[in-house]
Amino acid sequence: MNDREQEIKYNIEQVQSRIREACLRSHRDPAEVTLIAVSKTKPVEDILYAAQAGMEYFGENKVQELTMKMDTISQPLHWNMIGHLQKNKVKYIVGRAELIHSVDSVDLAKKIQDEAAKKNVRANILIEVNVSGEESKFGISPEALLDTIKEIALFPNVCIRGLMTIAPFTQNPEDNRQYFKKLRNLAVDIKSKNIDNVSMSVLSMGMTGDYEVAVEEGATMVRVGTGIFGERNYVS
């Protein structure tokens, strides 16, 4: 095992251990939480090392990078589209990505519906909610969420599996507890409405800096990149 492989394996074990501890603190079953390794900007070798260490779920931010890695890696992994999705890129991932985390408008959902119908598949999606109200963030406002979900729920080839949010970047993870709690409460409220074609089984929230707090507040998916692979390699 080379140094890089060892590093990734160690990092994964550390993150999983912290998830287990967060579950213990909040009286949850660790089996309820799926760790998604965010592999954006990372080489295929890193993904293979992570898979070798037991990782099955991977998340990418860009459609082109996601499809390239899916085409390159033959082993069966669970691929998630977690970044902002442009309507003109929808055709490349519908029927390929297992879950699209970042649906932030009825228009985008309609595009996914049209593509899924064309391919005769059902697309699993999460609705991205801008819980913090930051102007720089994508996502539907909490106030518009219920009406948006009711509209998207009518699309037969789209299945709403839950909600996703990106909390603010902060030095203190506790600062984001309020946002994770709010997303969980929104999910509970929507679940109580019993809308056809809508499940609230997935809460995708928490990243490297705050995933433990997110787990304590009910996250079922946490998206960890830097905590597994180290700092990102952005090429200018």
UniProtKB/TrEMBL annotation:
It holds the Pfam family Ala_racemase_N. Its cofactor is pyridoxal 5'-phosphate. The keyword Repressor does not apply. The keyword NAD does not apply. It comes from the Bacteria. Keywords: Pyridoxal phosphate. Residues 24-232 form the Alanine racemase N-terminal domain. GO terms for molecular function: pyridoxal phosphate binding. The modification N6-(pyridoxal phosphate)lysine is found at residue 40. CDD domains: PLPDE_III_YBL036c_like (cd00635). Belongs to the pyridoxal phosphate-binding protein YggS/PROSC family. Pyridoxal 5'-phosphate (PLP)-binding protein, which is involved in PLP homeostasis. This is Pyridoxal phosphate homeostasis protein. It comes from Catenibacillus scindens.
